[in-house]
Amino acid sequence: MTLDSLSTDPAEPLLQSGAVAGLGRERVRKLIDEHYAFIWRLLARLGVRTADVDDATQQVFMVLLTRERLTIQTGSERAFLFGTALRVAREHRRRDKKHAAQTDVDFDTLQHPGIDLESLTDQQRARALLDRLVQSIPEELRLVFILFEIEGLPAIEVAGLLDMPAGTVASRLRRARQHFREAARQMNIPGTLKGLR
Amino acid sequence: MKRLLDCDDPDDEVVRLLIRAGAQHQPSPRSKLRMIAALGLGSAVGLSASKVLAWLGTSSGKLALAVTVAGTAAGGAYVLTSASPAPEASEAVAPRSVDAAVAPRVAHETGLPEPPARASSHEPSASEPSASEPSADALRERPAPSRQARARQRPQPADRAPTPTQPAPPPEPVDLEASLTEETHWVDRLRVAAEAGDRPSFERLARDYGERFPEGQLHPEVNRLRTSLR
Known about the structure:
The complex is a heterodimer of chains A (about 200) and B (about 230). Chain A has 7 helices and no strands. Chain A is mainly α and about 200 residues long. Chain A has 2 domains: about 100 residues, Rna Polymerase Sigma Factor, Chain: A; about 80 residues, Arc Repressor Mutant, subunit A (Orthogonal Bundle). Chain A starts with about 25 loop residues before the first helix and ends in a 10-residue tail after the last helix. Chain B has 12 helices and no strands. Chain B is mainly α. Chain B has one domain. Helix content of chain B is about 60%, strand content about 0%. In chain B, α2 packs parallel to α10. Chain B is elongated. The interface between A and B is large, with 48 and 35 residues.
């Protein structure tokens, strides 16, 4: 599964009539509590501009409320939201390609208690660099890297989300790491991130 | 499979710094609250009106309701007899008009207490005596204060109300989280009015909301609800 292979609804295979009797307010609220941060961060890493990440996240969860006769197999909620987030992120990138790499600074959306202003600035610079490096990873490898290395999901769950064998996840991850390391080496990063050391 | 973050290869130190920065990136609670309000999911406990009514139909519900009413009445009577706040102060923060039909419904739907400002705008009907007001007999039975007590109660210069020529006191710092929570209540009430198609109530509430929160975070949501009402 690649980012642009999801031209149709990525969650369609997960929708099964009768699996769950519709999504009520309580269930949606629970899903928000459980997955909001994951979806929000994923959208940020997938090239949605900082200023648009909140809106994009809302779009993702809005689907749960607005889609008629929506049913999600129990246990597949994260996969459904993940697939929807990929589609929303792609729409945002298409709308504003020049901001594909997230480089703008938004203090309001950053929560990092116990860190001084200088380090905070460095954190944001680090994230901007991270996003540029992630964007440099070939598309078919990028999601594996984000989910495994940044989101910290187990390889088996990554394989499930991307609907691919675990062996494929491992090989893509290996290649993604090579790309990431090489791009980082070329950017001569160490001198710019003293505050994080 | 080992993550890069868990490796200790010195060559990957920068890579780990960057990944850690991404992993620690968190949305602010405010953005989540905003979304919950925008999606109309303000009910923190997820109680719907029908469930509340069903619960009130049970014996435990009736008992809890009776205890709550009695407690509220006793508490109100105590507050009114022990301290009488200046009406101007409560008027300044209270919405001037609140649709009595809309507000209780919101309280049921959201399962949350109504905004505190509403209490001061609630007017008891003339036909039913208010349990929170002290009776005339109770007031008559209250002993008259002694001369010394009256002297103590006499307002001191610092207690006097400011004259019109005095500058207004500086605004108190606003608790953003509390403010947003209160705004969410207002938007819930507006949503109920909008869903009921009650334009007059909606406009009254929207005006009061605008006066209460001129710099509010949820003005876009209010505008969206207004559009949906058309």
